[in-house]
Structure formats: structure tokens, C-alpha cells
């Protein structure tokens, strides 16, 4: 069996662009993958086309070897653009081989270790403080027991002369700490409650924020600061006892390495569509397992990303929860039913472990061909002095 074609498609599906990759074999078998570098899809599409040139004619069953060839075939190894492209191709190869062998992808990763893949829900970004208790009750009544508050931006929405909105850090700290307390009071002590700061804070601001929250009220803080400096996270570690969830932006096991070895993170936010696909994800999972760190999987894209994440979660021992954008309080349009003719379906707060061959997702390629990309930019946030803030 040999690869006959590798085709990237970039299309606006749901509420964002999705970059899907189809890998075909000469015998007619094929698989689908997805890339995770949102907002820079054209760069990833170009990388996929570069890889296509030497992948055609290769054996798609040699997934590990093809990963190494893609990663090491240029002088400048890795990087987020390249590993996003590798991720999509790698996932598609697993889908193809699973279909060819008649087994679900998790069987190729060692087999399933759980029956259900439980998910966590995120509160909508525009949620008002007074609405958090009602949304929490709605989730709990639907059997969801793991929730995430996003850092609450203040209501001021514009900065004169600049596109985007103002992010007033002190107001955001106050609003978010009150939201967390409201959620915890409603949910009680057994629910898992986290907060995503979207790396908008400094070390000092993060410490101020977390010190306003009673010990034990928050189960994890997700990316309070940017991840380029492990030393900065070590400094913050000394100022708070709240566990850290880090890693959705990491593009290899080497990026995770200092955080795992130095016990900086307590939850690994692996993104299977950015880190290097399933091949790299299982290696990160093994590294994390050696330090008793669980995976809190990042899943912001479409049905292919969700399916690949479900198969990964099924196959590793150290899994906590999978992110879902389709809870009763959010329900983002992550899938276009005209494009995805079959996808994994949730039951209550979890995905049942799939048993059909491959990923379990079908794509109508003819519909996809008629769709187009929308060039977009992430929201711009500004400080009150006019300087740029992280989105």
C-alpha cells in the first residue's frame, strides 16, 4: 500500500476556519486529519503541500517513520506551523490505517482503557456575573461536573483609534474571582472548577488574582502567563498553591519537557492537532505519566480534532477531561452537518469510546470543495494606556 495523494482543504466551518487534510492510498483507502493553528491556516496549508511532495509513494502504515521524516527533513526542525501540518497528516494516517485494518484508532495506540471520555464545559465569554449560578445549575442538572470559567473581560468594549477592546486587568481580576466564587458556591465541593486566563496576566497579576480565591475553591488555573519561560512559571509556583494547566500552545514533546521534569504543570493541556498528532501525543502522555500528571485535552476545533482527542483519551492511562464546546451552556457551531456526514456524538457529558474503524468521522468532500476560507484575525485587546495585550 502506498500514499497516492495528500490534499489540504481550508474552509470556514461553523464559527472558524478548519484546515482538513485528506491522505489517500493507491488501493482507494483514505483518512482525514485536522490542523490546529487557528488564524494562520494558509501557512499550514503551504507546509502540507511541501510534505505532499515526498509523501506520495510512501507506505502509510509506517506512521512513526513518516513522522520522523516530516519533522527532520528540513534543517529548521519543528515550529508551530510545521508541527500543525504534521499533526493533520499524522491523524489522517491513523484514520486511514484504522479503516484499512478494520479497527478503531485507539486500538493502534494500545487499546481502550476506559468506556467513556468525560468532558468539561466552558462558560460563554459574555456571561454576566449574575448568570453564573443559573448556568452552573443547568450544567449540573445535565450531569456535567467539570466546568471552566474564562477570565472575565470588563464591559468596556473599545479603544479610540484602535480596532478591538480594552482589557482592564484589575477589573478582570475582580470580576473573575467573583465568578469563580459564585460557581463554587453553587456547584459545591465535588465539582471540578478551573479558570482559563488566556495568558493575559503577568506573574504579579496572577499572584494577586489567585490570592483572592480561597484555597481549594479553584482546581486549576489555565495559562495565567505566556509559556515561553518555564522560570517565570516557577516563580509563580512559589506564590500560589493552585494547580497549573499548561500546554495547548506546545508544538512538541520537547516543549513539554522542562514543564514536566521540573513539576511546573499539574495538568497537560495537549492539543493533538498542534503538538504533532497522535504519534507525538502518546509520547507526551507517557512523559506526563512518569510524573503523575494527567491530560486535560485541548479541543477547540471541529469533529476530526474531537475524534482524535477521544481516541487518545481512550488509549492513555493518565486522562482527566476533554474540552467540549458543545455543552448545554455553550453549543458553538463547531460542525457543519453538510460537511460532516458522520461524527462522534456525546451522551450527556461524555463520548462513549468508539468501536468503528478509523476515527469515526466521515466528510463530504464535494461539499468541502465548494467552501472557502475567510481570512480573519483574533480579537485585539488593548491596555488602558494604548499598549497591546495578549488575546
Explained architecture:
The chain has helices spanning 41-55, 63-72, 80-101, 105-108, 132-141, 169-187, 203-211, 230-237, 253-261, 277-289, 303-315, 365-369, and strands at 3-13, 16-25, 30-35, 116-122, 146-150, 165-166, 192-196, 220-222, 244-246, 267-268, 294-297, 319-323, 340-342, 350-352, 362-363, 381-382, 388-389. Strands 4-5-7-8-9-10-11-12 form an 8-stranded parallel beta barrel. The chain has a 3-stranded antiparallel β-sheet with strand order 1-2-3. Helix 5 (132-141) packs across helix 6, helix 7 (203-211) packs parallel to helix 8 (230-237) and helix 9 (253-261) runs parallel beside helix 10. Helix content is 35%, strand content 19%. It is of the alpha/beta class and 391 residues long. The N and C termini lie far apart (45 Å). The model has no long low-confidence stretch (mean pLDDT 94). The chain has 12 helices and 17 strands. The chain folds into 2 domains: 3-104, Enolase-like, domain 1; 107-355, TIM Barrel (Alpha-Beta Barrel).
Produce a short descriptive summary:
The chain has 391 residues and is an alpha/beta fold.
Topology, element by element:
Layout: E1 3-13, E2 16-25, E3 30-35, H1 41-55, H2 63-72, H3 80-101, H4 105-108, E4 116-122, H5 132-141, E5 146-150, E6 165-166, H6 169-187, E7 192-196, H7 203-211, E8 220-222, H8 230-237, E9 244-246, H9 253-261, E10 267-268, H10 277-289, E11 294-297, H11 303-315, E12 319-323, E13 340-342, E14 350-352, E15 362-363, H12 365-369, E16 381-382, E17 388-389
Amino acid at each position: 500500500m502506498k500514499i497516492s495523494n495528500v490534499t489540504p482543504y481550508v474552509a470556514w466551518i461553523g464559527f472558524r476556519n478548519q484546515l482538513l487534510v485528506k491522505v489517500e492510498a493507491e488501493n482507494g483507502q483514505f483518512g482525514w486529519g485536522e490542523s490546529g493553528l487557528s488564524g494562520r491556516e494558509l501557512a499550514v496549508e503551504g507546509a502540507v503541500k511541501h510534505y505532499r511532495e515526498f509523501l506520495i509513494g510512501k507506505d502509510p502504515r509506517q506512521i512513526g517513520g513518516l513522522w520522523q521524516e516530516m519533522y527532520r527533513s528540513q534543517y529548521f526542525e519543528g515550529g508551530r506551523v510545521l508541527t500543525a501540518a504534521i499533526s493533520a497528516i499524522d491523524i489522517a494516517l491513523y484514520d486511514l490505517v484504522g479503516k484499512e485494518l478494520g479497527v478503531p484508532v485507539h486500538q493502534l495506540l494500545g487499546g481502550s482503557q476506559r468506556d467513556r471520555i468525560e468532558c468539561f464545559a466552558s462558560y460563554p465569554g459574555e456571561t454576566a456575573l449574575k448568570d453564573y449560578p443559573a448556568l452552573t445549575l443547568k450544567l449540573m442538572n445535565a450531569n456535567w461536573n467539570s466546568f471552566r470559567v474564562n477570565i472575565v473581560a470588563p464591559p468596556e468594549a473599545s479603544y479610540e483609534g484602535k480596532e478591538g477592546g480594552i482589557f482592564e486587568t484589575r477589573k478582570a481580576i475582580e470580576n473573575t474571582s467573583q465568578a469563580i466564587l459564585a460557581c463554587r458556591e453553587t456547584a459545591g465541593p465535588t465539582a471540578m472548577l478551573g479558570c482559563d486566563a488566556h495568558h493575559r496576566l503577568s506573574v504579579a497579576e496572577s499572584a494577586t488574582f489567585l490570592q483572592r480565591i480561597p484555597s481549594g475553591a479553584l482546581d486549576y488555573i489555565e495559562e495565567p502567563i505566556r509559556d515561553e519561560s518555564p522560570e517565570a512559571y516557577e516563580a509563580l509556583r512559589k506564590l500560589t498553591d493552585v494547580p497549573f494547566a499548561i500546554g495547548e500552545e506546545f508544538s512538541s514533546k520537547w516543549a513539554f519537557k522542562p514543564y514536566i521534569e521540573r513539576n511546573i504543570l499539574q495538568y497537560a493541556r495537549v492539543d493533538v492537532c498542534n503538538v504533532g498528532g497522535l504519534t507525538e501525543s502518546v509520547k507526551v502522555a507517557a512523559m506526563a505519566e512518569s510524573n503523575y500528571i494527567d491530560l486535560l485535552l485541548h479541543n477547540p476545533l471541529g469533529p476530526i480534532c474531537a475524534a482524535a482527542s477521544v481516541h487518545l483519551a481512550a488509549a492513555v492511562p493518565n486522562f482527566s477531561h476533554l474540552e467540549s464546546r458543545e455543552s448545554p451552556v455553550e453549543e458553538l457551531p463547531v460542525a457543519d452537518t453538510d460537511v460532516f456526514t458522520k461524527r462522534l456524538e456525546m451522551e450527556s457529558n461524555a463520548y462513549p469510546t468508539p468501536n468503528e474503524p478509523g476515527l469515526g468521522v466521515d466528510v463530504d468532500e464535494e461539499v468541502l470543495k465548494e467552501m472557502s476560507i475567510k481570512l480573519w484575525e483574533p480579537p485585539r485587546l488593548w491596555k488602558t494606556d494604548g499598549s497591546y495585550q495578549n488575546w
